Amino acid sequence: MSEDAIEDVDRILQLEATQLSRQREVDRVLSLSVLDPFEILQVPHTCTASDIKVAYRNKSRLIHPDKTAHAQARDAFERLKRAETELMDDDKRKSILTMMQEARRELTAEWRKEDGGEESEAFKRAVVAKYKAIMVDIEWRKRQKLKNELAAEGAASAREEQMAKERRKRKEEERAWEDSRDQRVSSWRDFQAGAKKSKRDGQSKRDGQSKKAKLAAAATATAKAKKL
After folding, report:
1. Counting Cβ atoms within 10 Å, is residue 42 exposed (0-12), middle (13-18) or buried (19+)?
2. 3-state helix, strand, coil in the chain (%, to 5)
3. Which of 20, 62, 21 is nearest to 41 (CA)?
4. Cα–Cα distance between 105 and 118 in angstroms, integer?
5. N or C: which end of the chain has fewer CB within 10 A?
6. What count of other Cβ atoms lies within 10 Å of the Cβ of residue 74?
7. CA 77, CA 57: separation in Å to the nearest integer?
8. Which CATH number fits domain 10-88: 3.40.190.10, 3.65.10.10, 1.10.287.110, 3.20.20.70?
């Protein structure tokens, strides 16, 4: 085999090895929890800003979507970027370390010395697991609180909407009452006029009946006088 052919084979093997490394790194990042940015970047808790930048730069070269054919490379790259952003944020990094310290404190009391003590890898893994459990619980509580707040807001909104509907209904009823006022006045006047006419008709009828009665009485009296 010629030297050129050997070089081509070496180049192909190198490319394949590089692609394999890229895919393995993507799989590694995706297998980790986003709650532990230290593990994603593979930097110690005592890392400096320079350590974080170097680790991010080296790993981003490996798993950047433009450099690997892995179907989930973009997801892994976004996790990597998130980890770098969180660790470069002093407040966020301090919060993460505080929660990890809390996890360590809770485990210290129950950890057995025969398991290797606090410096063992088993204890460190237990601390990370405890930290994740704490963060999951905190996140769950936040979501429950948000859910309850949204439910309360929804109930308040529903009450406000009902009150608004009632106000609109009252206004419509008042408007309809005002619009029908002329009709009511006219109806009342017609009723009053009818009542007066009925009263006059009744009085005329009574007067006629009284007159007839008087005439009848007079006729009866005249007839009696003639007989005498």
Report:
1. middle
2. 85, 0, 15
3. 62
4. 10
5. C
6. 15
7. 11
8. 1.10.287.110
Residue type, position 181, single letter: R
Distance (Å) of CA 119 to CA 30, 102, 108, 111, 193: 27, 16, 11, 11, 108
CB 87 within 8 A of CB 38: yes
Contact 35, 29 (CB under 8 A): no
Locus of tokens 């790259």: 77
pTM of the predicted protein model: 0.54
Place of tokens 């986003």: 34
Q: Name the token pair of 210.
A: 């009284």
Q: What is the pLDDT of residues 62-95, one digit of tens each?
A: 898 988 888 999 999 999 999 999 999 999 999 9
